[in-house]
Amino acid sequence: MTRKKPTNGRLDSIAPPTLVQSPTQYIQFLKHVSGQPWLALDTESDSLFRYAPRVCLIQITAPAYPPGKSSIPGADGVVDYLIDPLKLKELAELGEILADDSTDVILHAAENDIFTLQRDMNFRLRRLYDTQLAARILGRQGVGLAKVLLEEFDVVSDKKMQRTNWGRRPLTPQQLTYAQIDTHYLPALRTRQISRLEETDRLEEAQAAFRMLEKIEYRPPEPRTVWQLKQIRSVAEKDMGVLQAIYEWRERYSSQADRPPFKVLGENSMIHLSQKRPHSLASLRDIPGLSTRQVSWFGKELLATVRRGERLPIPQRPTPVRKAEPHLTRAAKKRFESLRQWRTEAARARGVDPDIVFSNETLLQIAACRPTSLAELEEIPSVGRWKAENYGDTVFQLLGNADKG
Q1: Residue 229 belongs to what H/E stretch?
Q2: pLDDT on residue 135
Q3: Cβ contact 334:386 at 8 Å
């Protein structure tokens, strides 16, 4: 069979997407998607190109027919839209549609899209269906979208587009096709998965997992610090003052230039700067990873920063944050080990990854809280009603046996 591979940026087997960039186009788009029984959704951001990433494109696949008319949720009965939030500043109406209890929202690996849409647009998605999570509940190995599209629909996705600049306009034909493919096949994939979930008696489990996704909330990340550098343990204490000064300079420069810090100055270069402490522009050229262009752009600033760092007191290393497990009592640790052993065996018997049954974090909470009823077990975050009802008796027995031993 000949694989469906984009040629000159286009996949000939499907109609081109509709690019929505003007208010008029947006109104027409809203008329078609409002009231539809399902919509497939994805987003593209520019995290590799800006200090503070943003959503640059929203992909929506909808039934081809207007709301109220029957439409088969396959790859041929759909229409694809690419919404440009960099051109359209107000998308509240789309947020309302995605939060409508009458519309299923289909995504693949939903968590990141949920977070970015909450962060940038305050969207609250409802009635989610995550095709990646469904694949994992079915015990599928290799659940990345590119692999799934290849195996299910014989479609080749251009992986180079994962690192493209989605904030640049105009979008290229290659970008448009890649973005379209991300949602075009999701409705058909969901139809296939629901059939398999029903055959394996896992549909209710999947639906419960989707409901848990609806509860997740975006939390702003903690401010970045020098202590998060991957090579920080290799830095001598005497060099920490200079490294701290360089790190803080890079954060300020990156923020002002709106560039990712790693594209301003690499970590390896920062470490060498703190160790060699150059005193001239010529000596800066000996720093690994520091180009002639970078030296001309901000070499003098780096030299001044090194001098300032030499005068700074050595920063105190933060107290390591201890993992949750060591905080458990001896009895709770025993419960945790018993639960973890059972969880691993149960996952192997079902042919799924262990966290599909329970994550380690959830097991730690169960071991620490020691629930004695389904209601108490259900209240633990990431447990929910389905897992409480289906695993509860076993969990209670394991907790009791661990406490007796």
Answers
A1: none
A2: 98
A3: no
In this predicted structure, the answer to whether residue 390 has a pLDDT above a threshold of 90 is yes
DSSP assignment of 36-78, as one string? -SEEEEEEEE-TTT-SS--EEEEEEEEESSPTTS----STTSE
pTM of the model: 0.92
Question: Can you list the domains of the chain with their CATH numbers?
Answer: 18-213 (3.30.420.10), 226-311 (1.10.150.80), 325-404 (1.10.150.80)
Q: Are 247 and 309 in contact (CB under 8 A)?
A: no
Tokens linked to 279: 């005193």
The sign of the torsion formed by the CA atoms of 331, 333, 339, 345 equals negative
Q: What is the arithmetic mean of pLDDT over 320-326?
A: 59
Whether 32 contacts 62, CB under 8 Å? yes
Contacts of 311 (CB under 8 A, 6+ apart): 241
Per DSSP bridges, beta strands 104-107 and 128-130 are parallel
